[in-house]
Structures are given as C-alpha cells and as structure tokens.
Amino acid sequence: MEPPPPDTHGTVLVEVDSDVPVERRPPPPLFACRTWEREDYLTDSEVPAERCAAMRTTGLGGDPTRGAGAACMVVVDACQPVPEADRCARWEELLQASEATVQFARSDDPVAARAELERVRAIVERNRCDG
Q1: If we measure between CA atoms, which residue out of 23, 106, 37 comes closest to residue 78?
Q2: 98 close to 90: Cβ distance less than 8 angstroms
Q3: For a disulfide at 87, which of 27, 67, 94, 113, Cβ 3.0-4.6 Å?
Q4: What whole-number distance in Å separates Cα of residue 99 and Cα of residue 102?
Q5: What one-character-per-residue DSSP string does 28-66 give?
Q6: Are 72 and 55 in contact (CB under 8 A)?
Q7: Beta-carbon neighbour count of residue 105 at 10 Å?
Q8: Residue 118 in contact with residue 67, Cβ under 8 Å?
Q9: What average pLDDT does this structure show over 47-57?
C-alpha cells in the first residue's frame, strides 16, 4: 500500500512548454476597500489605509469665511475580504488598473508604479486563475 500524497494546500502542478512543471496556487487574499470619499480600490494589504480628511476651519470669531489654517481628521478606509470565488477576476482587475497606471502615467513615482505592476503580474501569472 502506498502512503497518501502530501497535503499541497490547494497547490496544483501544471505543465508548460518546457519539461519542468510549474507550481500553481489559488490566488492570495485580496481586499476591496472604500475611502471616506467613496473611492473604491483593491489591495492585498490586510491593514486598511489611513487618510487625512480635511476639516473646515473658522476664524477666531467663528466666521467660516475667515478660517485661518488647516486641519484634518485621520480616517481609516473600510475594507472587506474578496470572497475566494471572486479572487481571480478581482486580481485581473487589479492587474489592469496597475497596467493603466503605468501606461497612462497616473503616478508621481513611475519607478514604483512599474515595480507594483510587475509584482501584481507575477502574482496573477503564478496563481491558478485560468479556469
């Protein structure tokens, strides 16, 4: 009698063009988040982002038109885990958003945007999302 195969935690080996099998895994956790300004985004960070929400200031006499200075309140984005059944499609969505950021120069830091694109692309390519 042969021993049972080791638990692979959902890992599947698939053949590619070469003779070397490539390990494919289920996609990692992903979170759908919303900012206080109701902007939606996807992230693989379990820690919701903190933002500074501008607050209205007033002058010493209480006049809102004479506000001197600026103030903000720290708010935390609301995030929910993406259900496992939806992860493949949502990782593809994140990949497309990352590609658009690089292609259309939507970042103040193009080097970081390109690195993020390559990171997301690698996650999508090595995970079991091809049906």
Answers
A1: 37
A2: no
A3: 27
A4: 5
A5: PP-EEEE-TT--EEEES-SSPPEEEEEE----TTS-GGG
A6: yes
A7: 9
A8: no
A9: 91
Rounded Cα distance between 119 and 123, Å, is: 6
Measure the CA–CA gap between 73 and 17, rounded to whole angstroms. 54
Q: Do the Cβ atoms of 98 and 117 come closer than 8 Å? A: yes
Q: How far apart are CA 73 and CA 71, in angstroms?
A: 7
Task: Write down the residue that tokens 């720290």 correspond to.
Answer: 74
Distance between CA atoms of residues 97 and 71, nearest Å: 32
Q: What is the pTM of this model?
A: 0.70
Residue 130 tokens, joined: 């091809």
The residue assigned the tokens 């990171």 is 119
The confidence score (pLDDT) of residue 34 equals: 97
Whether the CA torsion 56, 61, 67, 71 is positive or negative: it is: negative
